[in-house]
Amino acid sequence: MTAARGLEGIVATTSSISSIIDDTLTYVGYDIDDLTENATFEEVIYLLWHLELPNKAQLQELKQQLADNMELPQEVIESFKTYPIDKVHPMAALRTAVSALGLYDDEADLMDKEANYRKAIRLQAKMPAIVATFARVRKGLEPVAPRKDLGFAENFLYMLKGEMPDQIEIEAMDKALVLHADHELNASTFTARVCVATLSDVYSGVTAAIGALKGPLHGGANEQVMKMLTEIGTADKAEEYVLEKLNNKEKIMGFGHRVYRQGDPRAKHLREMSKRLTEITGEPEWYDISVKVEEAFTSQKPLPPNVDFYSASVYHSLGIDHDLFTPIFAVSRVSGWLAHILEQYENNRLIRPRAEYTGPGKRNYVPVDER
Ligand code: SDX
User: Fold this and answer.
1) Candidates 229, 251, 328: which one to mutate for ligand 1, based on the most atoms within 8 Å of Cβ?
2) What is the Å distance from ligand 1's center to 180 Cα?
3) I need a surface site. Which of 29, 91, 94, 276 has the fewest CB within 10 A?
């Protein structure tokens, strides 16, 4: 038995949800470029869960269900006040709160298809409320309740900021959510599938997935990108910064990908959004620094930017705290995790690979006072 490090190139399951073939990303057959230009996030959620785009009535029903289920149990809101709030990263708070949500869901351990779908709606709806409420509570602000008349992206921004976002902000958030919704068997989605393949519950699967997304080699990279841009400060310092990091054998966050070779098709949409939004906010330097980092990095390594690179300056332009960037990724990706969890339950088999043993050969036990 020879190990494939990091399971590179291993096909671990079949799936009808999304595909990456020859650097092209599709959700259930629809090209990501097409969906980013034309679909709303709610349409994409429906597509991932039902494997078809919704008609008008189906879309309206889903939107209603999401709006109706956004409000958090009071116990979860109160629990934020018991966290050591100035030390807690919002991804840790999100992971804890999703786990806690399971405690207040009477159907948490019901395993039939309809109950699992109802839980998917509830979780998808409550994720933005958790992120927004925690973000406010830690600043000593009152939580803002969701409004039933608002769309998903709009409600998220409204709960976060406590005021109505403008149309450009809503569109940008909606597109970002579409772009992050699913991505084949990425590390967090695989984690979710491994968890529920033991026939554990939906809340456990999503909690596990949030833990996997949090790491800087995965979703956590977008926050690290913003940290880097801030450290660089001005576009003229970008090249020197990148070369020094590479000389020290350090990774540059937001570049490289396990599957894409020529480039991540999502990055160009975020690049365009970054250019537009940084101009509108009067802070074009964030885009300019990003472009210089890209030029300097790709002149050294043939690794194009991934989804996390330009999303950093996009979220910054939306006035979002930098440590909320990865939680936003989770608010979108939970749609994909839930699609994969439902798919896993439909055709389940325990996921249990093997390890190539590299420890010592056979040894005899030595009693403790002879060691
Ligand atoms: C996401 O899988 C998905 O689908 C994930 C995702 C999704 O939508 O779910 O697309 C979202 O997680 C995007 C990735 C975010 N992470 C980062 O931006 C962190 C920086 N990137 C790298 O750490 C890395 O490129 C990974 C983690 C993305 C991929 O890791 P791999 O496939 O294990 O590649 P590797 O670390 O083995 O790197 C191969 C080579 C190495 O050089 P050599 O030792 O062979 O000389 O490329 C180099 C690496 O050092 N390399 C980098 C680099 N990325 C790879 N060198 C400097 N900076 C980098 N960013």
Assistant:
1) 251
2) 17
3) 29
15-215+323-346 folds as Citrate Synthase; domain 1 (1.10.580)
Report the SS3 class of residue 27: strand
Residue for token pair 């885009």: 287
The ligand 1 atom at the shortest distance from the C-alpha of residue 264 is 10
Structure tokens at 116: 């699992």
Q: Are 175 and 191 in contact (CB under 8 A)?
A: no
Per-residue confidence (pLDDT) for residue 1, from 0 to 100: 82
Q: Is 108 in the pocket of ligand 1 (CB under 6 A)?
A: no
How many residues does the structure list for the chain? 371
Rounded average pLDDT over 54-83: 97
Is the CATH code 1.10.10.1800 the one for domain 221-317? Answer: no
Give the mean pLDDT of 217-222: 98
Tokens of 189: 């989605």
Confidence of residue 240 (pLDDT cuts 50, 70, 90): very high
CA of 138 to the centre of ligand 1 (A): 33
Same fold, 15-215+323-346 and 221-317: no
Question: What 8-state DSSP symbol labels residue 30?
Answer: E
The answer to whether the beta carbons of residues 177 and 332 sit under 8 Å apart is yes
* Domain boundary assignment for the chain: 15-215+323-346, 221-317
From 184, 257, 260, the mutation candidate for ligand 1 (largest count of ligand atoms within 8 A of CB) is 257
Q: Which of 182, 288, 308, 316 is catalytic?
A: 308
Residues 262-307 have pLDDT tens digits of 999 999 999 999 999 999 999 999 999 999 999 999 999 999 999 9
